[in-house]
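Example (one chain per record):
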Amino acid sequence: MLVAILLPGLVFAAVRSGLRGYLLDDVTPGTRVAQALLAGVVFDLFYVIALGPQLVNRVGTPDFQNPREVALIVAVLGVITPAAVAYLLFGRPFHWKFYIVPIATSRYSRTPSAWDFKLPHAGGAFVRIHLPDGSLIGGWCGSNSFVSTYPHSRDIYLESQWELSPSGEFKDKMPNTGGVWTSVPDGAIITFTKTTTTEEPNNGRPQAV
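Predicted structure:
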């Protein structure tokens, strides 16, 4: 019974987190267990409605003389079906959105922070980082760049580093650059400069939009 209740919910939650990304609920153990339990109960209710007493008899008194049948039931109902449902709801390109008319408007956002909202979609721009110690780091944020997201600490990898003037203006691409990585502590300021194209200029001062 423990496997029948928890397994579908745990698989659903794991696939959902992998596709959607991790939110606060996904790193709180008590909340994860409660959500997995709830999802497992929902899956089991649908299984009983769809398959009826025959499924209850099979699960309640499994025939261990035929272990393949038991393994097949567990694999289909406990792993494959919850994973497929999670993929259909949260995967790409088959991302379904359900629009429900709200009775009351909530101001709560499930996005953990502005960093998680903006930085993963900041590609195709020059990024200038003002660190709390006064130093400047700048570079091109393109398709080969990477930023961390919740629950990991903030850091960013820019695929190429650019020389900055004392005032913070982009000058030239640094020779033989392999990119630059930095952690982003509290107090840092990050600015973005969009260009006329989505391709990184090879040299010279970037042309802003």
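Caption: Residues 114-194 form one domain.
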